[in-house]
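Tutorial, part two.
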Amino acid sequence: MSPLKIKKLSKIRSELDKLDNLLIKLIKKRTFLVKKVLLLKERKSQIVDKKRIKEILLNIKKKSQKNNIDPKITNKIWKNMIYAYIDYEKRNFKKK
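Running the prediction step on this input gives:
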């Protein structure tokens, strides 16, 4: 790789790192909200809401298409995030 390309690659990676830092802050905020939702759930069976998951993924697909983003990418990201939070809720659910 040429020195110019190495420099460009380094700059792009730096921008990606900055975006990652913003994403971490958003994930922290999302986790806080998920914790609040979890406190409202009375039974572990309430953790997985298939209708809500379907709704979220459909909305993400529409927004992706509107913003010219490959919906396969966003679908995979959101599915992984949703199921990571489902796992989190199951691990942190406390019977009342």
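Helices lie at 3-40, 50-66, 71-92. In part three we will examine how such features are distributed along the chain.
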